[in-house]
């Protein structure tokens, strides 16, 4: 799900 | 990583370095809103909670540490440094930023990607960043004239989020799954807040005049 995608942005 | 995001991160980094340079070189923080700097420190601390748990890349980790340390250093300088703090425009920097903090946290509790501590704090940091510049823009309006470095700082800060918007557009078309609506919408609002500043900044640059914001 979108919530699990790693936040790779600063 | 794409060129827009790299340009955005570099612009953001330069904006922080410009601010540190101004404070260090002139030993003055006149024209700078302490409240905006405190909001930015909160943005970075709330957003980078995963600094020690999730390793994404060397670049990502280094930049997070740089942003957290530099924002805390600026707040410390403006609050504690005996020379710098004397030049703080305390009577002009009166924006009630506590309201921003409470409202952003309230919105983050309602609108987030997942109701977990980390996601709520992440959404809080995104919303808070969108409005963090408000005390600074109000201070600039109040103080009328804008010294070069502070003007450049705000300009670069606006530019960084504008690059990020290009990054989100790029990612939307390139990646099949786009799950950055919270960032994208908040980033649009954030960049829109700079619009009037950009306009006056461009006018002053075109007329080669000192940047003067209408009171």
From TrEMBL, chain B:
Which GO molecular function entries does the Swiss-Prot or TrEMBL record give? Answer: ER retention sequence binding
What Pfam families does the record point to? ER_lumen_recept
Annotated transmembrane regions? 55-77, 121-140, 152-170, 182-202
Q: Give the species.
A: Aquilegia coerulea (Rocky mountain columbine)
Localisation per UniProt entry: Endoplasmic reticulum membrane
Say which family it is in. Belongs to the ERD2 family.
According to its record, what are the GO cellular component terms?
endoplasmic reticulum membrane
Keyword Lipoprotein (UniProt): no
Listed under GO biological process in this entry are: protein retention in ER lumen; protein transport; vesicle-mediated transport
Topology of this chain in the membrane: Multi-pass membrane protein
Q: What is this protein called?
A: ER lumen protein-retaining receptor
- Alphabetical keyword list: Endoplasmic reticulum, ER-Golgi transport, Membrane, Protein transport, Receptor, Transmembrane, Transmembrane helix, Transport
| The keyword Transmembrane belongs to this UniProt entry's keyword annotation | yes
Q: Which domain of life is it from?
A: Eukaryota
